Amino acid sequence: MKKLAIIGLGPRGLYALENLLEQLSKSNKVVDIIVFENSEQLGAGYVWHDAQPDSNWINITERALSGIEKRPEITYADIVIEPFPSYHDWCNFSLKPSEIDTFPPRNKLGKYLVERYSSIEKTVKNLATFNLIKSEVKSINYSDNYKIEIKTANKAWICDDVLLTIGHQPTELSEQLLMWKSHATNQNELRLYDTPYPISELRDIKNNTGLTIGIRGFGLGMIDVMRYLVINNYGNFKVVDNATLETVYYKVKKQQLTLIPFSLDGLPLVPKPLNETIDNWYEPTTQELEFFKAEIETVAQSEINPKDINFLIAPMAKIASRIFMDLNENAVAHKLTATAIEVKILNWLADADYQDKLLQDEKIPTEQLIQAYINMALGKVPVSLDFCIGQVWRHCQPTLYKSFSHPKLNNDIIKKVIDLDERSKRYSYGPPIESMQQILTLIDANVLSLAFVNDPKINLISNGWHLTNSKEKSIVCTVMINSILDEPKILDIKTLLVKNLLDNKLIQPIHSELGIETSADGYVISPDDKPNLPIAVLGRLAKGSVIGVDAILECFGPRIVDWAKAYVAKLEH
User: Which domains does the chain have, with CATH numbers?
Assistant: First the structure.
């Protein structure tokens, strides 16, 4: 009997297991399945742990989680695995288009994922052909007899195939963070947190008084850190206007806490539209999405070798131009044709520094910029062209992610597409309006300062981190938190398993700054001397071969189905 190992059982590993069992059932086949997972939360993993605080919110609307569909009943190895409801059915989700979108805590989805996996395990755990190993895999070796050896700290297993779904992996610290870590170690009164998660690691400083805390990064991680630290024994948030989600921060006693976020450009995230009605302003038609798909696939899945990414930005500009024109009075006033708007969109997509009066002026004070984007998200003021493009991009992302999977293009072009998608995430992966309102109210409460948000000069001094802004104003932080998550650059990952795979030449990066090169069915494209390597990789580690790897909905997407079908098809031969 063939033996398959699945390493990693977060959301992606869970869906892979489900699809494997479903495809095996359809083919009337049974294999020996070994699942390795070191975290206590099977199905959820660390990111979606159901014990994390309520202050960690999902950054996509609960409405969009319709993509987590129900699991059908599966008959496998003479047992029946019961069906499991979709996320929306599980939580009885119901929301009118005019009602404000909800963004639940991540622990709510974590609970769903844990229950979904448990409903499988209670049935398959008694099978002799299913084994769950709660240990960390240290190495994978591929022998000359086409068998794979998997080792944990004290045991080894022999398998025929391996699927890696291990998600986010830590990378080597940057030179800056290494210097900061050394500085904090040498000064007893200083603290450095080199990662924002698990956020419970910050509990030691959560209710301290008189702290000035620097936060490296001005994105979603910063918001999680901010919210966790300020919802405490000294104060909390309260929404005072249910129509705009305007918020106040009320203090029950003095804490003298100061948060100092900063980033290289100091630009804030752009909140998502208030509700489905406003969000629909930016939704492309079915025909436009088909056009977008065809334009991308014509190039990405052919032997054409483009010199630029015009094949992506040209159809995007055409769609976004039409939508911006149709906004009428809801858009910044202009007297331009659709073609002229299209040219401006092309310029903006091609050049991050492009300036135009239809674009939001980002040189205004950051607090005003946040308020401007909040007002656009509320639908209360005419929207700028960049805001419109960002929302259209979000609606087009699922099509982009599917159409651009495993492109037959040179690696530099792939990197440019990914870089543009990353740039768009300031808009497309933006937080709820309420999160941005919380930033504003913390500024009013003198708890958070944006005075150093734009690339401050940082010097290490005996009593902390000395930050100086462009106006020569300075401040000293005694605590520093890095809220920026590592990019999945395979060559920088420090996990023993990944290092082992690289050392054994079982994997190779698709680009020096990206992840593992894989085929359309998820299998690793290895060096020439190891053809048909029976190792598959799904998710974040394959960034470059696929894009959109960070989205929770991609954990329940077609790539996982493609792998399961390909694996079962291999059993036929």
Answer: 3-170+487-571 (3.50.50.60), 175-268+434-482 (3.50.50), 276-428 (no CATH)
